[in-house]
Amino acid sequence: MSESAELRVLVVDDEDDVRRGLCLLVESTGAEVRDAESGEAALETLRGWSPHLMLSDVSMKGISGMELLRETRRMHPDVRVVLITGYGTIELAVEAMRQGAANFITKPFDNEEILTEVQRNGDEALVAEQIRGMAGAREGTPRIIADDPAMQAVLDLVDQVAPTSMPVLIRGESGTGKELIARAIHDRGKNADRSFLAVNSAALPDTLLESELFGHVKGAFTGAENRREGIFARAGGGTVFLDEIGLMSTAFQGKLLRVLQERTVIPLGTTAQKPVDFRLVAATNRSLRKKIAAGEFREDLYYRLQVVTIDIPPLRNRPADIVPLATHFLVLYAREVGLDQGNCPGFSSGALAELTGHKWPGNVRELENCIQRALILSRGKEIQATHLGLGEDRGPWGGMEAEGVNYEQGKQEALRRFRTLFIERALTATKGNVTHAAERCGLTRAAFQRIMRDLELTRDQFQ
């Protein structure tokens, strides 16, 4: 990290000496440093300031480091969080990484260890920020590639609806980038300086979803040791993005409708109404009209949500975006395999033909994963068609036998491909039902989930 890099770091620890020491250490790198003596103070800082990196203790009074990690990921998904603890266990470290932590450090640590984390995460965060700024097809739209007329029409509609406060319903297949469009609406709106808070409606049962959105008071249920403000209240005039709203239970749909009508919430454990101010953007990859006909979605809620509807075309229907997107991901992930932007490999004519000829059933997410894999297999050289692994008639080796890959590398790659294909097919067959997929494979649910985490698969990709 160069001395001129404007890296922003937030240090969070309730021990004054430790916090001051970390601040001085990080400041020695030339970074802008702010500190917070608690998780609550850190969240307050994050409402008006977005760092690149956060160093946080795990064990703190009030909001813990793990809770702070989750809240930070919701408020600022691009912030890298490194957790520090004196009570490190493998289970805690695994959970921290699963929740999105960049790393997990145990005490006692030495200064070099901290400086290494700042250096590594700082470099990656600054490069990622720079690429996001360059990759947008339009000013103010980071990470959205829109060379194709079909996607340009989507951004035209975003421009029209963003300055209003109307609810928006975004429809599109899994992997098309619905959350990116939701963020673009927020970033171009009149309250862009307020929070953008995202929730996957399908990921939580009703009770937890109600607590997440409406909040709860202390003692509202077992484990509710502190009062917690819900997302609707925390939005503070910002945007709440509800993904996969089509999978929300009909019982909870009624509660959401009341909030939209009355602009108040009733936190769990109380009868007192609390006024809220937020803009709602919802998304679905399913036909809500079909769900209405089947009695699975409330028609009155549907009309509340779809004041403006934005349909994101699947990648197969926006062919002009395929190569620009592939190039964007190539630059984005080149550093992960030890390449800088100046040494980024290109695509052979055969690879370009493969990219443009593929139907991309997994949309942009599938393309992103494909480019990451190709970078690893090409080992920094020009990416060939065989590196993409898109052909169905190449057998299990995907061309590795002709590329000089040694036996151990080939074995590991073949095993990874087998695991990926096997698990993906099971999840596709069960439409993302992890329990049923595990049974089909003869695995326990826990073992199946471990493999999913290793392969970075989520059930949402197959629903």
Automatic annotation (TrEMBL):
Source species of the chain: Candidatus Polarisedimenticola svalbardensis
Top-rank taxon: Bacteria
SMART domains assigned: AAA, REC
GO biological process: phosphorelay signal transduction system; regulation of DNA-templated transcription
Keywords noted in UniProt: ATP-binding, Nucleotide-binding, Phosphoprotein, Transcription, Transcription regulation
Gene Ontology molecular functions: ATP binding
Pfam families from the UniProt entry: AAA_lid_14, Response_reg, Sigma54_activat
Positions of post-translational 4-aspartylphosphate modification: 57
InterPro entries: AAA+_ATPase (IPR003593), AAA_lid_NorR (IPR058031), CheY-like_superfamily (IPR011006), Homeodomain-like_sf (IPR009057), P-loop_NTPase (IPR027417), Sig_transdc_resp-reg_receiver (IPR001789), Sigma_54_int (IPR002078), Sigma_54_int_dom_ATP-bd_1 (IPR025662)
Lineage: Bacteria, Pseudomonadati, Acidobacteriota, Candidatus Polarisedimenticolia, Candidatus Polarisedimenticolales
Domain Sigma-54 factor interaction, residue spans: 144-376
Protein name: Sigma-54-dependent Fis family transcriptional regulator
Response regulatory domain span: 8-122
